[in-house]
Amino acid sequence: MQDFGLYFQLGWQHICDWQGYDHILFVTVLCGTYLLADWRKVLILVTAFTIGHSITLALSVLNVVKVNTSLIEFLIPVTIVLTSLVNILNKERSAITVRFSYFLALIFGLIHGLGFSNYLKSLLGTSTNITAELFAFNIGLEFGQVLIVLAVLIMAYVIIKLLKTPRRDWVLFLSSAIFGIAFIMCIERFVLIKFK
């Protein structure tokens, strides 16, 4: 039980760590088009992302899937750039674009799970009985993700409802800023890819 608490803490701290802010940027831009009133849609969106990253996190940590670490580190900001572009280009939140967002969250979750696994594998070392640690770490990731989502929704509420900023202006500002940061990350990480 003590290990559960430790790995739970490591999970939420990892996703909320400002030094590795790429996951924070992704969750922020993923939920950046929603308001508190849209909590059901956000729940489905975050669940899709969770399913994706839970699958690849487990497969990678259990050594079922082996990945090129530098390629994954490049693909993570690519997911942020693409999600930002979807937000910028979609002027209306139709049922089709919402479903497309769910699909992207699931697919991009697969990539982020591989990124999470690199960190978790470094913590586990040569340990062989890792099921409990994997579960605790994943629950910690979810807790951290919920904290980020709540912060984004509260920020959107303040900016849109209290400061009377048009919703589209908020989405364009947030998504464009995150696009710029992630695009620079893509360029920096592309040169570090080691093809095997």
Task: Please provide a written account of the structure.
With 196 residues, the chain is mainly alpha-helical. It has helices at 2-15, 22-31, 39-61, 69-89, 95-124, 131-162, 167-190. The protein is 79% helix and 0% strand. α2 (22-31) packs parallel to α4, α2 (22-31) packs antiparallel against α7 and α3 (39-61) runs antiparallel to α6 (131-162).
Nutshell version of this structure?
The chain crosses the membrane at residues 20-37, 42-65, 71-89, 96-115, 135-158, 170-192. The protein has 196 residues and is an all-alpha fold.
First and last CA, distance? 40 Å
Strand content: under 5%
How do the SSEs run, as a string of H and E? HHHHHHH
The beta-strand count equals 0
| Regions with little confidence, pLDDT below 50 for 5+ residues | none
Form type: globular
- Major beta-sheet overview: none
Number of domains: 1
The percent of residues in helical segments reads over 70%
Task: Give the overall average pLDDT.
Answer: 90
Rg (CA only): 17 Å
What structural category do the secondary elements indicate? mainly alpha
Count every helix, treating DSSP H or I runs of 4 or more residues as helices.
Answer: 7
Protein name: ABC-type antimicrobial peptide transport system permease subunit
Keywords: Membrane, Transmembrane, Transmembrane helix
Transmembrane segments: 20-37, 42-65, 71-89, 96-115, 135-158, 170-192
InterPro entries: Put_HupE_UreJ (IPR032809)
